[in-house]
Amino acid sequence: MRYIFCFFCFVLILSGCNKSYDAKDTVMAVQTVKLPPKNESAVYDKSSDQSDPAAPPAIKEKIEQKIIKEATLRFETDDLETTFNRIQNAATTNKARIINDSEGKDFATVFRNLTIKVPSQNFDRFISDISKGVSYFEVKSISAEDVTEQFIDLTSRLKTKKKLEERYLEILKKANKVSEILEIEEQISTIREEIDAKEGQLKYLESRVSESTITIEFYKTIAEKEGVKISYGSKLWTAIKSGFYSLSDLLISLLSVWPFVILFCLVAYFIRRRLKRKKA
Q1: How large is the average pLDDT for residues 1-5?
Q2: In this structure, what is the dihedral angle of CA atoms 118, 121, 124, 127, given to the nearest 10 degrees?
Q3: pTM, to two decimals
Q4: Taking Cα atoms as reference points, which of 124, 125, 113 lies closest to residue 84?
Q5: Is the torsion defined by CA of 228, 231, 233, 239 positive or negative?
Q6: Contact criterion met (CB below 8 Å) for 69 and 147
Q7: Helical segments of the chain, H only
């Protein structure tokens, strides 16, 4: 019995040692594995899991360019009316509108000036349509001004002012004192004026971007003989009228200095009389 009891104790000791060794081995195995930090694991999961439906797709914000286009054209033509009709047809085709139309005549030419507003997307096509009937341009100036940065700056400032206005409106709802209410309303009024000013600037920029301005001057040279036939009589009559007006101006000038004229006549009379006495 004694030997059996000793054998049984020996078996229990061996089994306990094996369990302690197993526990130590498990702890050592866990310690040898390096777990990534929480933030690193999160980054890893987002970058490695491409099929995650919850992750929003990367969208690049596209900034639309704001370009102001303007053009100035000047050319000679044989027929003003035909040229005007061609420009008018091109304006109708490209949805443009004539906002200013003036004509005149100088010594050697008859001319006509047009100011046209055309949608920016039709700017190049309108210039091309006009150029088809022109042999050469004396002046052809085309400019494009990029106002994208100015437009973005105004838009950003406008958003900031509107958010500030909303905050003041929320504060106004919670105000109890009359002095506080008046002060907040004054601030809101100032902010509203700035918002209106910036909205006006944005609308002005938008209108210049959406519609381009084109100034066109076309003229016809008057022949020398034709000019003589038309203007010879008028030139003769103009010369007669000019002489009459010059004489009238002289008389009016003399009337304006009549005291000096009378004084001059008196002095001349006494001098002449004295000279006659000396001779006598």
Answers
A1: 50
A2: -20
A3: 0.54
A4: 113
A5: negative
A6: no
A7: 2-32, 38-48, 80-93, 123-131, 148-174, 178-210, 224-256, 258-279
